[in-house]
Design a protein that fits this description.
The protein is mainly alpha-helical. It contains eight helices and three strands; from the N terminus they run H-H-E-E-H-H-H-H-H-H-E. It is globular and about 40 Å long. The chain starts with a helix and ends with a strand. Bound molecules: heme C. Heme C binds at residues 60-62, 64-66, 74-76, 78, 81, 85, 90, 93-94, 98, 101-104, 106, 112, 119.
């Protein structure tokens, strides 16, 4: 995992945007399926699903507690935490919350739960350092 991130960072430094996109795609490939978890070009242009994940983040106002750049406020940095949480752990905490610790539950919010894979893809891309800006747009 760590090596892959270094390789990706290295690729960003060395190659043009065409190879960058390919490398990000390769690095993001999830283990369960052949579809990449996210696709990103130039650090901020993303595929439609990942864009929907960003919109879900905004609609649910996760930024109120985790910060506009996911770097943490009253809630922890999701950039850091998604490096260690599994996807299952992520889904569980978003669904059930940790009410006594100030993390709200989104299990009854279809806006979030119907888009949970996309939200995860967006946040994972941020955490991996592949999506370099919080505010993303569509790949033209
Ligand atoms: C009202 C404030 C608040 C909002 C809104 C909020 N969170 Fe949280 N979140 C927290 C706090 C506080 C914690 C830390 C809980 C703890 O200490 O265990 C947390 C924890 C988490 C964790 C677990 C981190 C870890 O280290 O285990 C994840 C993942 C997370 N939030 C994602 C989200 C997402 C995604 C959204 C929007 C859908 C969201 N949060 C909205 C306050 C919030």
């Amino acid at each position: 995992m760590k090596h892959r991130q270094f390789a990706l960072a290295f690729a960003f430094l060395c190659f043009g945007s065409a190879t960058q996109a390919q490398d990000a795609q390769a690095a993001a490939k999830s283990s369960e399926s052949d579809k990449p978890l996210y696709t990103v070009v130039d650090g901020y242009k993303v595929d439609a699903d990942t864009l929907q994940g960003f919109r879900t983040w905004r609609a649910a106002a996760c930024d109120r507690c985790h910060g506009a750049n996911q770097e943490g406020m009253v809630g922890p940095s999701l950039i850091e935490r998604l490096k260690v949480l599994s996807k299952e752990e992520f889904v569980t905490v978003v669904r059930d919350g940790r009410l006594e610790k100030g993390m709200q539950s989104f299990g009854n919010d279809p806006r979030v739960m119907d888009n949970i894979d996309k939200l995860y893809a967006y946040l994972k891309g941020r955490s991996d350092g592949a999506i370099t800006r919080a505010r993303v747009t569509a790949i033209e």
